[in-house]
């Protein structure tokens, strides 16, 4: 049967596209303008004379703004943090979903209760712990804190609850132990949830701004979001350079999502609220 044309549907779709894509296009176009053009009125959406001057200024790294080091710090910390979150959350989520032990419900309730506590409350205790470990101003201060977050444990637990338990029972009949069953049977079937959690953890660490300011002191150890904020002067703001930095920071995230979007959609769809 031929579908009827619905103009209201397309109108809503166009409006939503403008709402979501408009700011992104504004960032890209602003990065192609000169500093003078961004301060002239009336403000134009498209650059009158496109130029790559902002990108040339951005990549002209020096001791005050080592863009390459900031980018590498963000990439290393976000990647290592995502791997650590997946390792901790998958093991804890599997234990809470499949294993029986005394106080299981109490432990799960205590983990979930931390979701209702504002994250800023944990900043000072985490800072004191890192200080005692001599991890301040190192990448460990960005990688380890938050690796045992309640959301990851809850997310993986819900996914494991939806996996057919017959897969694990057949593995046990063949003589596989708990860790062998988890590594060979459960984890490969949980790839959508694992990828989704890894992407969410990567994005959270990549975009974090407050915590790196709190624990990183050296210019060469800053992450990209914090480093880009240093490009803003005390009395003037070079908008094209800042927008060019925003475009550079968005590239790895866009590339990552292009390759894993199928797993993300499947992981969210399969991680219901069972149990």
What is the strand and helix layout of this fold?
Elements: H1 7-31, H2 35-38, H3 53-59, H4 67-98, H5 104-113, H6 123-132, H7 140-143, H8 150-161, H9 165-173, H10 178-189, H11 191-207, H12 210-215, H13 224-229, H14 239-270
Helix pairs in contact: 1-14, 3-14, 4-8, 4-11, 5-8, 9-10, 11-14
Residues in helices, as a percent range: 55-70%
Rg computed from alpha carbons, rounded to a whole number of angstroms: 23 Å
The helix-and-strand class reads mainly alpha
From the coordinates shown, what is the CATH architecture? Orthogonal Bundle
Q: Order of SSEs, N→C?
A: HHHHHHHHHHHHHH
Unreliable runs, pLDDT <50, ≥5 residues? none
**Strand share of the residues?**
under 5%
CATH class: Mainly Alpha
What composes the largest sheet?
none
The domain tally reads: 1
């Amino acid at each position: 049967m031929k579908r009827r044309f619905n103009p209201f549907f397309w109108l809503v779709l166009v409006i939503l596209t403008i709402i979501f894509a408009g700011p992104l296009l504004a960032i890209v176009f602003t990065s192609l303008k000169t500093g003078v053009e961004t301060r002239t009125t009336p403000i134009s959406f498209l650059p009158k004379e496109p130029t790559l001057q902002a990108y040339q200024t951005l990549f002209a790294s020096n001791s005050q703004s080592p863009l390459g080091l900031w980018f590498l710090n963000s990439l290393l910390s976000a990647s290592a943090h995502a791997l650590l979150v997946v390792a901790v959350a998958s093991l804890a989520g599997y234990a809470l979903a499949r294993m029986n032990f005394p106080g299981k419900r109490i432990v799960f309730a205590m983990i979930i209760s931390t979701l209702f506590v504002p994250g800023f409350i944990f900043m000072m205790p985490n800072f004191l712990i890192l200080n005692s470990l001599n991890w301040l101003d190192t990448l460990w201060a960005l990688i380890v804190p938050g690796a045992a977050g309640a959301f990851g444990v809850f997310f993986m637990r819900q996914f494991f609850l939806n996996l057919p338990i017959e897969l694990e029972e057949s593995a046990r009949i063949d003589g596989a132990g708990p860790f062998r069953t988890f590594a060979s049977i459960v984890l490969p079937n949980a790839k959508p949830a694992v990828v989704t959690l890894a992407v969410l953890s990567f994005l959270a660490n990549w975009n974090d701004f407050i915590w790196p300011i709190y624990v990183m002191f050296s210019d060469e150890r800053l992450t990209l979001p914090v480093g880009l904020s240093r490009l803003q002067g005390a009395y003037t703001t070079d908008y094209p350079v800042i927008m060019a930095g925003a475009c550079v920071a968005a590239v790895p995230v866009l590339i990552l999502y292009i390759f894993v979007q199928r797993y993300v959609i499947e992981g969210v769809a399969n991680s219901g609220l069972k149990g």
